[in-house]
Amino acid sequence: MLGLTVRWSLVDAAEGVEEELATYVAETSHARFTGMSGLRFKTWRCVPGEWFEGCYVFATDEAREEFQRSFTAGADESPGSRIIGSSPVLIEACDIVAVAEGWDGFVAAPRA
């Protein structure tokens, strides 16, 4: 599977930025990516005070390459960069080796 990781540092971000990011994901970003053509799924991850990350899994090389090219071109002005106050520290294509769904199942929700 075809992955892409976009990570921002939160080390120098304002206090409370994690809540602002979670609200943005719940109110805007989740809907933008739900049902997106070429995207299998996206997760948003955060370690408070350390980093915030979007992890994408795409259906085709073309979908990943197009998204990565487009995102990279506007990364400095992306909503995440504006909220955090800095550009991503990492935009990296990767291979997803496997995905396992546990007994309790997968939950797609705008806020965990």
UniProtKB/TrEMBL annotation:
Source taxon at top rank: Bacteria
Name of the featured protein: Monooxygenase
Native species: Nocardioides furvisabuli
